[in-house]
Amino acid sequence: MTTTINRVLTVGAPPSECARLSRSVEARHCYPGVDRVQVRASGLVMFFEIKLAPAGADAAGAPAIWVDEHLGPVVDVPDGTRWTSTMLWKWPHDELVSADSSYTFRAVGSDTEFIFELSYELPTSRGLTRLLDHGRFAESAERAIDRYLESLSALLSPARV
To answer: How far apart are CA 67 and CA 101, in angstroms?
Structure first.
């Protein structure tokens, strides 16, 4: 079963700068719990680890998800830019979840509209069954994405003088 998360935000940087920044190592650190990021293939492939510690808890020793993200090219769209990525999330019990994301940035007056979409397949293996049975997986994913987008929006909104 595919689950999709859509968000529309307003950020301050121009679309081309948003596309550049959102593809950076710094942007991957906007995901909650990211410990380290490795870059391969001239910046088109990123590997990063996300510690699964509750907010405010010590992440040392917490289980982790490994993410293998392949970044697509930046393309022009009316009034802006767009890029996509394909991800593979490896969970602590070796479950694999595939995901696709898109980042669209459009100029709207002096601001930029940021449209984010993430679609992922729910895992079906027994290691995550408890989370799925209680509906906590989707809720946790939504909270994590909202925290990611809050941090990423701050990165994409430089202070105005």
So the answer is: 13
Tokens of residue 147, six digits: 């925290």
Cβ contacts of 49 within 8 Å, gap of 6 or more: 34, 35, 36, 64, 65, 66, 67
Q: What is the DSSP string of 96-133?
A: EEEEEEEEEEEEETTEEEEEEEEEEEPP-SGGGHHHHH
CA distance 3 to 135: 12
Taking only the tens place, the pLDDT of each residue in 115-127 is 999 999 876 665 5
Contacts 24+ apart (CB under 8 A), 34-39: 35/59, 35/64
Fold assignment, 2-155:
Alpha-D-Glucose-1,6-Bisphosphate; Chain A, domain 4 (3.30.530)
Query: What average pLDDT does the segment 16-31 reach?
Result: 95
> Six-digit token pair at 154?
């701050």
Predicted TM-score of the model (pTM)? 0.88
- Spans of all domains in the chain: 2-155
d(CA 155, CA 103): 14
